[in-house]
Specification:
Chain lengths: ~290, ~240
């Protein structure tokens, strides 16, 4: 097998899948950093985002990419709502209670998707898209959109976190919650902001998975493990780490097919997660140990 | 003239037990007041009671004409009291400048005057404003913590053992900064382990023991008091 083949069939799909994981992992890492628990409904929230985009596409008849902003905003609002209705009441309880609650939310969100949109496989647009040829590299437009959108969304988020007052407040809250309170930072607003951002990124993640493959009610749940592996690999609390981790997990999954049967592809994320927790639990970019 | 802060017969503690019993302390404007005493005397607890971090079951706390007994910490911050905890008093993963910005979070509008004032007190910090606070030495961290708390122009600064774990050189420097801060019109109430040095530099002091007032007076008077010297200061 030559190099071009390796890139076309394994590396490029790996980068695309990695970008999708990265979008989810960034949200997971933010929630970990600020609220200090693992959010198990993250995958199903991504499914919901993907199906909201589908609803916009079919009802307004617009192109999927135009529907994406609607899905981001709607899913962000749903995430804030879920926090207000469910998680907020558990804030003073041990964190494991919220983790378990989020598993329940995962099942609930999935059921809503199944009731509203059914359990059949759906797509944003019918037909086969042939890849374009760029000097021997075969890339589909939607693959370019996926990577560009990930870079743009994470870039905007980084600017927000490092330049704006409320972005810095989010970092302060993650860094030293007691001191943030002593400084008069409104933790309720920070929590709301965190959910809005994490929910929006979830929608983008689910949307691009649906755009590159197809929409299924279990699509997000199956992404949960790789997204967690990515967040922990990169270092919990590190946005740039989550992106790096997402790309590594995505590429590793696609490349693994070269060495192990493809049915075991999904086990790669688990192997990476296990390896990192044993060898370097702070992640590549030294995050928090929880 | 009325005192800036007067704690009158404060009784209270964390949870059910009363750590403080009838503690009475006052701080005037432009004054550095130090609380000393043996370990477990309730020094830090007395200070935390000012900042609303304690269940107060008796006595009153009056600050600048307002009865602040039982106020929540965020309301007390806005009223003009800032508190610097002994540990975990900086944002490690943020730059010095961002630490100050977070200190001024509640302030509306332009912070540049506040930055100028803080950087004038801590010229070292201005040079290193883009450095991550977590990479600084203990003494410099203490300066960041004090700088952060000064961003809201407090009238009273509460410092919990600002020199704990610092070298004598840094201790002197922190004390000097406290004097400079006082000279800008901010009163300071601090708790100190290094009783001798602290009494020598403070305007007035209180000796607490077992959660009660034991002695009070100017720094010099307390240092000269034989009982104080023997009981609490190790001769």
């Amino acid at each position: 097998m030559d190099l071009l083949e390796l890139i076309n069939f394994y590396l490029i799909p790996g980068i695309v899948l990695g970008s999708i994981y990265a979008l989810g992992a960034v949200g997971i890492t933010l929630i970990f950093a600020i609220l200090r628990y693992a959010h198990l409904a993250h995958g199903d929230l991504a499914t919901l985002g993907a199906f909201i985009a589908l609803a916009v596409v079919t009802s307004l008849g617009i192109s999927p990419l135009v529907a994406l902003p609607f899905a981001i905003i709607a899913t962000g609002a749903v995430a804030i709502g879920i926090d207000k209705v469910f998680y907020e009441h558990l804030r003073e309880r041990p964190k494991i209670v919220t983790v378990m609650a989020s598993l329940g939310i995962a099942l609930m969100v999935r059921s809503v998707v199944q009731v509203v949109w059914g359990v059949d496989t759906q797509t944003y647009s019918r037909g086969i898209v042939r890849p374009e040829d760029y000097f021997g590299l075969r890339i589909r437009d939607r693959e370019i959109y996926t990577v560009l959108a990930m870079v743009a969304l994470v870039g905007v988020l980084q600017l927000f976190l490092t330049r704006s007052k409320w972005g810095k407040a989010m970092r302060a809250m993650s860094d030293n919650p007691n001191l943030a309170l002593l400084s008069g930072i409104d933790n309720k607003k920070v929590v709301m902001l965190t959910w809005g951002i994490a929910g929006g990124l979830c929608a983008a993640s689910g949307f691009f998975l649906g755009l590159n493959t197809e929409l299924k009610s279990m699509m997000g749940w199956h992404m949960l493990l790789p997204m967690f592996a990515a967040a922990i690999l990169g270092g919990v609390g590190r946005v740039e780490g989550a992106v790096l981790g997402g790309l590594i997990v995505g590429i590793a999954e696609e490349m693994s097919v070269l060495f192990i049967p493809s049915e075991y592809k999904a086990a790669m994320a688990f192997a990476i997660l296990l390896f990192m927790l044993l060898v370097r639990p702070t992640g590549l970019l030294k995050g928090k140990v929880l | 003239m009325n005192a800036l802060l007067s704690m009158d017969k404060i009784t209270g503690g964390y949870g059910e037990a009363d750590i403080l019993q009838d503690v009475t302390i006052h701080v005037d404007q432009d004054e550095i007041v130090v609380i000393v005493g043996p370990n477990g005397a309730g020094k830090s607890t007395a200070m935390k009671s000012v900042f609303g971090l304690l269940n107060i079951r008796g006595g009153t706390m009056v600050f600048d004409g307002d009865d602040i007994t039982g106020w929540a910490p965020n309301k007390i911050v806005q009223r003009g009291i800032c508190y610097v905890p002994q540990v975990d008093n900086i944002f490690r993963e943020m730059t010095i400048h961002e630490n100050l910005e977070m200190g001024g979070f509640l302030k509306q509008g332009d912070l540049s005057a506040a930055y100028d004032r803080v950087y004038a007190l801590f010229p070292d910090l201005k040079e290193r404003r883009k450095t991550l606070a977590g990479s600084l030495s203990g003494g410099q961290r203490q300066m960041v913590a004090m700088g952060r708390s000064l961003m809201l122009d407090p009238k009273l600064l509460l410092l919990d053992e600002p020199t704990a774990g610092l070298s004598p050189k840094y201790m002197e420097q922190i004390f000097q900064i406290c004097r400079d801060v006082r000279d800008t019109g901010v009163a300071i109430l601090l708790v100190e382990q290094h009783a001798k040095q602290a009494l020598a530099f403070a305007d007035r002091g209180y000796v607490l023991a077992a959660g009660k007032n034991r002695h009070e007076g100017s720094g010099g008077e307390l240092l000269a008091d034989r009982e104080v010297a023997e009981m609490f200061l190790g001769g």
